[in-house]
Amino acid sequence: MSIVVVGSGINGLVAAAELARAGRTVTLLERAPRLGGFIASQERTLPGFVHDVYSSWHPLFVSGGAYALLGADLEARGARYRNTDGALTASTADVGGERRTVVGYRDPGRTAAGFSRARDRETYLAMLDAFGARAGTVFGALGGELGSGRTLGALGWRALRALGRRGVASLARDAMSSGRAFLRREFDGWEADALWAPWLLHAGLGPQHATGGVMVPVFAATLHQFGLPVVDGGAGRFVAAFESLLRDAGVDIRTGVEAEGIELRHGRACAVRTSAGVVDAGTVIASVSPQALYGTLLAESGAVARQRADAARHRPGRGAAQIHLALDRPVPWEDPALREVPLIHLSDGSGSTGVAVAQADAGLLPQVPTIVVGQQTLLDPQRAPEGKATLWLQLQEVPFAPVGDAAGLIDTRGGWAEATLRDRFLDRVLDRLEAFAPGVRATVLAADLITPADLHAANPNAVGGDPYGGDAELDQNLLWRPFPGAARHRTVVPGVWHIGAATHPGAGLAGGSGHLVAQQLLGRRSR
Fold first, then answer.
1. Rounded distance, CA 183 to CA 473, Å?
2. What superfamily in CATH does domain 3-39+58-80+231-314+468-521 come from?
3. Are the CB atoms for 437 and 334 separated by under 8 Å?
4. Cβ count within 10 A of residue 22
5. Which of 133, 104, 49 is nearest to 376 (CA)?
6. Which GO-annotated molecular functions does the record name (predicted)?
7. Which SS3 state, helix, strand or coil, does residue 378 take?
């Protein structure tokens, strides 16, 4: 019987590709008119300005298991990367009247050299060395089936052998720590916190959330080793390469077709009912939200009543927004060090980002939001006409249905459908950018705002405008993602598997759950 993959985000693409290349018969269903989910590039502002509409940076993909299997084939089909060997990321903020900027480089030593305190310089390099010893355990957990007792037992045994009891206890402490606690415990100065605490937003976390004490070294080590690759010519070429690979492998791709239900025979999946008819299936891999899987696709199954109730209580994370700018010239950063940095956070670290997260969690527009500034044209100049630039702004602390404004200046009644709210929010972001790059507003030729409501409309997996698959606090993470009783990717319904950002290992452009399930179905990984 054939395998039907529902949804063509990164995990669906990876699962379909790995299974088809191994000789399985695969049908890929996508409700949208194109493949890719939150991977796309378009000229959204002006002709000649190519913007990565949603995700952009691929360090997690090029460092993962799916890339090891598929990378060469994707490159042969046009998915090539532009990367940096120098500056990687930076954070800048005004703190007590002082402008603070810290820059991270591919070279860890050069990064540490920018820290003001000798102890912190030593601690930073020691942190990376310690993570090297832990990497097998950490990535084994992130890439393993944590709902399996066999997997957990093997991980624990390997961790004891590699780290010893004290090392395992230290790792467990860091895993239970927030990023803020870890960074303030380990470092005396402000630089490490400012540089890496905002990165926790990219995992759907905040500085105050557990597991941040492990995720900070994960981000730091990954970026130092793999950089911040972007797809040459735009993320759309990545999707086009996947589509070419899938077609060459014989995958039956059906876009504009919505999966409406999974049909069962004797309790086992036998077909997928779609808006265009019924597709036979011995196995269904659903890259959908928990609400969609248990509340819609398996609505007729009595075997998942408990999971259906749990899915209804599954919490989305904070909403997010994207802003795309077409600029008449590159950003005129006041600090010249920022002019060569691909990705910058406007944040002082766990302080301002923690406040903005708390305000967004309370339903308020943050007074001082953390702004992720992507300068892709530094790496890939062809994305804009000569002498001009694109700018990719991401905000990860934005309520889906704002109940107020933390600054008390923006009327949020009517929500994101109101043009006034959209315009005032855009002004807040651009004013904040202007403070660090005087004159930048005068260079803006066109702007495009994508709100949390727009994200949900574009992709129903972004429940509540959350592109990270649900709140990543500890009770919905790791062993409990998306919730207890559904932590394994193989569901209680025979033949039905669940993948995507809502499942372990969570969000990120790695294809981790798609790769894990494909390898289990091929008998190469323990179930």
1. 18
2. FAD/NAD(P)-binding domain (3.50.50.60)
3. yes
4. 16
5. 49
6. oxidoreductase activity
7. helix
